[in-house]
Amino acid sequence: MHAVNTEKEKQRVGEQATALIENDMLIGLGTGSTVYYFLRKLGEKVREGLQVMGVATSRQTQTLAESFGIPLVDFNAVNELDLTVDGADEANYQLQAIKGGGGALLSEKLVASRSKRVVWIMDATKLVRQLGNVALPVEVIPFGYAHTMGLLQKEGWEPVLRQDKGSIYTTDHGHYILDVPMNGIHDPHALSVWLHLLPGVVEHGLFLDFADTMYVADGDQVVVMHSHAK
Ligand SMILES: O=C(CO)[C@H](O)[C@H](O)COP(=O)(O)O
């Protein structure tokens, strides 16, 4: 590994990922500070004549895409997307990821699941052998969130209700987020299924079988990894 300058690496990987975009593509636009650089560069290419349409995965991305001149379309008005490019909070060598640090996991998962190809972009600090160094975001219904927290606590987890400037953080969809410290996830698929069965849970940040490609910025290089599962 090279010396880490994550902002430069985010920019490098975000800009490089725009090379994947071809004329007439319908693109899922992820959310976050790495995706910011992807959007900015894509906006430049659109102004130079590239013709694409995007589906935004958050209000933040919608605002950015509009400011960069990227044409947007309503998710419900489209069929399959050609490609989604999104960031991740952590990913392993099987291209499984934890997402949701930016709170957009619900839309991000919906859009990724409607895309022919999904690409994660990140800096090398996020690449891990085993998922679970970062807390896992779990999106819950505000009604009864304390009950859902209690159910997690009963199983030994210590969920933290996400805050934003002294108030409870609310997602674009009006939900709350519980950040659950993991200390290593041994069986991500089993955890995914278990969480989906928990009353009050809308979605969680385990993105297990979505990505076929990952762009990882490491120093001056961008390493491209492919999934063997896809
Ligand atoms: O999942 C996300 C938002 O819900 C982001 O993609 C993830 O948090 C990575 O963001 P960043 O590029 O800012 O580190």
UniProtKB/TrEMBL annotation:
Q: One Pfam family this chain carries?
A: Rib_5-P_isom_A
UniProt keyword Isomerase, yes or no: yes
The name this protein carries in UniProt is Ribose-5-phosphate isomerase A
The record's family statement is: Belongs to the ribose 5-phosphate isomerase family.
Highest taxon in the source lineage: Bacteria
**CDD domains in the record:** RPI_A
Q: Which reaction does it catalyse?
A: aldehydo-D-ribose 5-phosphate = D-ribulose 5-phosphate
Residues annotated for substrate binding in this entry: T31, G32, S33, T34, D86, G87, A88, D89, K99, G100, G101, G102, K126
According to the record's subunit comment, the protein's assembly and interactions are: Homodimer.
Function (record text): Catalyzes the reversible conversion of ribose-5-phosphate to ribulose 5-phosphate.
Question: What organism does the record attribute this protein to?
Answer: Marinicrinis sediminis
